Every structure is written in structure tokens, then in C-alpha cells.
Amino acid sequence: MTRSTLIEKVSEKVKDLTLKQTEIVVETVFESIKEALAHNEKIEIRGFGNFRLKERQPRNARNPKTGEKVEVPSKMAVRFKAGKALREALNPDLIKG
After folding, report:
1. pLDDT tens string 40-57
2. Beta strands in the chain (DSSP E)
3. What is the domain extent for residue 53?
4. pLDDT band for position 97 (50/70/90)?
5. What does pTM read for this prediction?
6. Are residues 36 and 74 in the same domain?
7. Residue 24: which H helix or E strand, with range?
8. Residues 19 and 33 in one domain
9. What is the mean pLDDT of residues 11-34?
10. Is the same domain home to 27 and 55?
């Protein structure tokens, strides 16, 4: 799904907003998530999942073209963990009951 498809779907559900207003809402949500992650805050969307930052340790790698060893510095990476409701929606066969 692309950003524009998401905006269209939200606009269809919320009849009171124009497509442009819906775009602003979706963009605001994405910007809020980016800002929170930039401040190392955990984001929890109940029923959907959690976003967290995790530091990747520095490592040695190889340039696939030349075979030369390259040092890769440490960096922050976003980790997503699906919430229970999302896992159950994706795996209905695994629901115990």
C-alpha cells in the first residue's frame, strides 16, 4: 500500500474531510511518529504494534564488488513488534480457543 492509497482509504471512511485535509492528517501522523523516534521515544499503537529504536553495533563487512573489508559504524534502526490483535488478524489459524 502506498501513502496515496492510504490517504484515499482514510478519505473514503471519513466523509467530512476533503482529500487534501485527509492528506494533512496522515502526514501529521507520520511526522509525529518520526519526531517521537528521533527523540528516542517508544511508540505504542494498541492493537497494531510498537515502534522502538535499537542501536546496531559497529561491524566489519565486505564490499561485494571489490571484496575489500569495510567498517560499518554503529547506527540506530527502527524495530517494529506487531501487537496481539494484528498477529491474530494475520494468523487466524493460530488463535487458541
Report:
1. 999 999 999 999 999 999
2. 43-45, 49-56, 59-62, 69-72, 75-82
3. 42-97
4. low
5. 0.76
6. no
7. helix 19-38
8. yes
9. 94
10. no
> Cell triple for residue 58?
559497529
CA distances from 56 to 50, 59, 60, 80 (A): 18, 9, 12, 15
Short-list 86, 82, 87, 62, CA closest to 72: 62
* SS3 assignment, position 58: coil
Helix (H/G/I), strand (E/B), else coil: 96: coil
Q: pLDDT, tens digit, for every residue of 2-15? A: 999 999 999 999 98
For residue 82, what is the domain's CATH number?
A: 4.10.520.10
Quickly tell me which residue has 478519505 as its cell.
Answer: 11
Total number of domains in the chain: 2
Considering the domain architecture, whether residues 49 and 95 belong to the same structural domain is answered as yes
